[in-house]
Amino acid sequence: MKKEEIREMSTADLRERLAQMETEYLQQRMNHAVTPLDNPAKITADRRMIARVKTELRQRELNNK
Fold first, then answer.
1. What is the pLDDT of residues 13-28, one digit of tens each?
2. Concatenated DSSP letters of 1-65
């Protein structure tokens, strides 16, 4: 998902997607602790994507005040 795609989504969709991404991220971290993943860089990419979504939500929150 790119920045432009994130900006086009509604706030409710972003919150829903964020919750889904966070659960997937935690599941990947636990799986990686037990057995190494084929691509451990995906954990880093997912963490950064979560940060992008949180940043967009925070910007919307500040712009609405």
1. 999 999 999 999 999 9
2. --HHHHHHS-HHHHHHHHHHHHHHHHHHHHHHHHS--S-THHHHHHHHHHHHHHHHHHHHHHHT-
